[in-house]
Amino acid sequence: MSVNLVCLRKEFLPSDFFFRHLTDVLDQLLTENSLDLGEVNLIITGDDELERLNRQYRGKEGPTDVLSFPYLESGMEEMQQGEDFAVGDIYISLDRALTQAEEAGTKAEMEIALLAIHGLLHLAGYDHDSESGAKVMRQKEQETLSSLNSRIKGEQ
After folding, report:
1. Which of 2, 63, 79, 119 could connect to 50 by a Cys-Cys bridge, CB 3.0–4.6 Å?
2. Backbone torsion region of residue 90, taken as left when φ is above 0, otherwise alpha when ψ lies between -120 and 50, otherwise beta
3. Structural domain that includes position 33
4. In b/e form, how buried is each residue of 18-56, taking b as 16+ CB within 10 angstroms?
5. What's the CATH code of the domain at 6?
6. CA-based Rg of the chain, rounded to a whole angstrom?
7. Rounded-to-integer distance, Cα 65 and Cα 83, Å
8. pLDDT digits (tens, 9 = 90+) for 77-119
9. SS3 40
């Protein structure tokens, strides 16, 4: 299993320390959702790209903070073969992440982590289309973010 980081906005590169811990919690989510051998691409870009993707794939105007593109079909035959497979791509808008971090009074890296976790949960089949689904998803996001914080604080 692996999480690949592609930073298309070079003015922001997460530290190796932070990315290692983020990768650990994302790998943990993959394992918890029986996606152990899966590969995820985490792509950090800007509002322009998220706006283009949002319009093209969701038919919605304007940028958004995170979009997930799953590669797995129902049945997930790839997993049954015991071979590595692509789970999907997570696109994060650095512009939105920086704005949201400032509004929340948090660090940009932690906002990006929250968006990455949110995106990965979508790839794993979680959704927030219903009130109950949103509650479950928010709870899992907070548990995972808390685990990330504990890992970071434990090593500092």
Report:
1. 63
2. beta
3. 2-155
4. bbebbbebbbebbeebebebbbbbbbbbbbebbbebbee
5. 3.40.390.30
6. 15
7. 32
8. 455 456 778 899 999 999 999 999 999 999 999 999 999 999 9
9. strand
Token duo for residue 55: 């319009």
How far is C-alpha 105 from the chain's CA centre?
20
State how many domains the chain has.
1
Helix segments in the chain, DSSP class H: 16-32, 47-58, 77-80, 94-104, 108-123, 131-155
Compute the residue count for the chain.
156
Each residue of 29-58: pLDDT tens digit? 999 998 888 899 999 999 999 999 999 999
Residue type at position 82: G
Amino acid identity, position 59:
G
